[in-house]
Amino acid sequence: MRNLIFSMHTSLDGFVAGPNGEMNWINIDDEIFDFVATITEKADTALYGRVTYEMMQGYWPTAADQPNASKHDIEHSAWYKNVSKIVLSRTISDKGLNNTIVISDHLAENINKIKEQDGKNILIFGSPGASHSLMRAGLIDEFWLFVNPVLIGKGIPLFKDVTETTKLKLIETKTFTCGVTALHYEMKRD
Question: Residues of the chain whose pLDDT is less than 70?
């Protein structure tokens, strides 16, 4: 069975973006990029909400072709082009999309079918709305939370509409020189 792994930057006070989607407070550097590459190496499927997918499609397919492309841009662009993509959306279809399926309903049933297929992990970057839906449905197996040493006060919450206690087991931590701490949790299934 494949794991669905949620990876997200968060402020210390639990926000993934400011009220208008601002993410200029996120610390990211080559050390973090190299570390995240170890996570993406273990995944052959990327899962996004529509907004994040459209943002990714606007950048990653050609990021490596740019004259000032960084090592990270080249590596992640190659990964992005090769992985299967899943988009959670009720407003777009997968017609004409390459190596991409769109899930618009029956979330748990469709995601569980994909998790049962052979393959590597399924990785969800960002996509707070989609992540909230996946969490409510109990579909996330692991969390990689990149806690930034900043308080932003308001914005889009990391966790939303949590209605019952969810127990997690800390697997590992990693502190980066820029001050970000990565926390790796897995769901405790009773």
Answer: 190
What CATH number is given to the structural domain containing 55? Answer: 3.40.430.10
10 neighbors 151 (Cβ within 8 angstroms)? no
Specify whether the CB–CB gap between 155 and 147 falls below 8 A. no
Position 93 in a domain: yes
Task: Give the end-to-end CA distance of the chain in Å, rounded to a whole number.
Answer: 17
Helix or strand (DSSP H, E) at 170: strand 168-175
pLDDT of residue 94: 81
CB 182 within 8 A of CB 176: yes
**What does the pLDDT read at residue 159?**
87
Its domain, for residue 57, covers: 31-125
pLDDT at residue 190 in the model: 66
Counted domains in the chain: 1
How is residue 158 written in tokens? Answer: 């990391």
Encode 66-99: b = buried (16+ Cβ within 10 Å), e = exposed: eeeeeebbebbbebbeebbbbbbbeeeebeeeee
Beta-carbon count within 10 A of 162 CB? 11
